[in-house]
């Protein structure tokens, strides 16, 4: 009788754990839906502001974010973590560009990259032209075509640096009424 009770208890606990994990994965998937249009999000000391697409310089700002990434001429020697990315968003000023579909480009270092998001710190230790990207280098995909949903996370080695700096991006933001140091 004790063995049956133990088996029933194990089955119940397993069911609860499985239900929890399924619910948790569904909630994470809801957060990673493909956006319908291009978005710019400004993070400032833990506050989040969505930049209005009707803003006159919205497209210019988005294009400058992409240019900073796509014309990057250097890479840093460090490993990033999801927690460090979140600390940048919560404790500094940064801008994030979210694309409605995967963009594939060849960087100056001749590596092809598939990406969906760019995060550019505007102050702090990485406000030197560093651009973090959610996506993957072509070499890591081994010839497979990536799904958008698989390119939503910032990877530990997914960043480059544009030594040209952030002056133009900051100027565009300031012209749009966004105060940047």
Strand order of the largest sheet: 2-1-3-4-5-6
Described by strand count, sense and barrel closure, the largest sheet is:
6 strands, antiparallel
Which residue ranges are poorly predicted, with pLDDT under 50 across at least 5 consecutive positions? 17-32
Instruction: Spell out the helices and strands N to C.
Output: HEEHHEEEHEH
Computed CA radius of gyration, to the nearest angstrom: 20 Å
Strand content range: 25-35%
Instruction: Tell me the number of strands.
Output: 6
Per DSSP, the total helix count is: 5
Please state the overall shape, judged from the principal axes of the Cα atoms. globular
Q: In percent, how helical is the residue content?
A: 25-40%
N-end to C-end Cα span:
71 Å
| Average residue-wise pLDDT | 82
Helix/strand/pairing category: alpha+beta
In a nutshell, what does this entry contain?
It is built from five helices and six strands; from the N terminus they run αββααβββαβα.
Reconstruct the topology from this structure.
Layout: H1 2-31, E1 39-44, E2 47-51, H2 58-70, H3 82-91, E3 93-106, E4 112-121, E5 130-137, H4 138-141, E6 154-161, H5 167-175
Antiparallel strand pairs: 1-2, 1-3, 3-4, 4-5, 5-6
Task: Give the key terms.
alpha+beta, 6-stranded antiparallel beta sheet, 36% helix
Task: Provide a descriptive summary of the structure in words.
The structure is a single chain. The chain is an alpha+beta fold. Helix content is 36%, strand content 28%. The protein has five helices and six strands, in the order αββααβββαβα. It has helices spanning 2-31, 58-70, 82-91, 138-141, 167-175; strands spanning 39-44, 47-51, 93-106, 112-121, 130-137, 154-161. It has a six-stranded antiparallel sheet, with helices on both faces. Helix 2 runs antiparallel to helix 5 (167-175). It is globular, with a radius of gyration of 20 Å. The model is unreliable at 17-32 (pLDDT under 50).
């Amino acid at each position: 009788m004790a063995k049956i009770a133990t088996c029933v208890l194990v089955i119940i606990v397993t069911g609860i754990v499985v239900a929890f994990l399924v619910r948790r994965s569904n909630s994470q998937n809801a957060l990673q839906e493909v956006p319908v249009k291009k978005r710019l999000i400004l993070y400032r000391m833990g506050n989040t502001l969505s930049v209005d697409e009707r803003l006159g310089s919205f497209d210019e700002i988005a294009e400058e974010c992409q240019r900073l990434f796509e014309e990057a001429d250097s890479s840093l020697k460090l490993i990033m973590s999801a927690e460090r990315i979140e600390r940048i968003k919560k404790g500094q000023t940064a801008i994030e560009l979210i694309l409605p579909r995967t963009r594939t480009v060849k960087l100056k270092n001749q590596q092809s990259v598939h990406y969906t998001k760019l995060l550019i710190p505007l102050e702090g230790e990485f406000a030197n032209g560093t651009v973090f990207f959610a996506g993957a280098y072509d070499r890591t995909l081994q010839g497979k075509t990536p799904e958008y949903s698989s390119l939503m996370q910032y990877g530990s080695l997914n960043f480059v640096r544009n030594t040209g700096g952030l002056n133009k991006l900051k100027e565009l933001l300031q012209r749009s009424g966004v105060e940047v140091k």
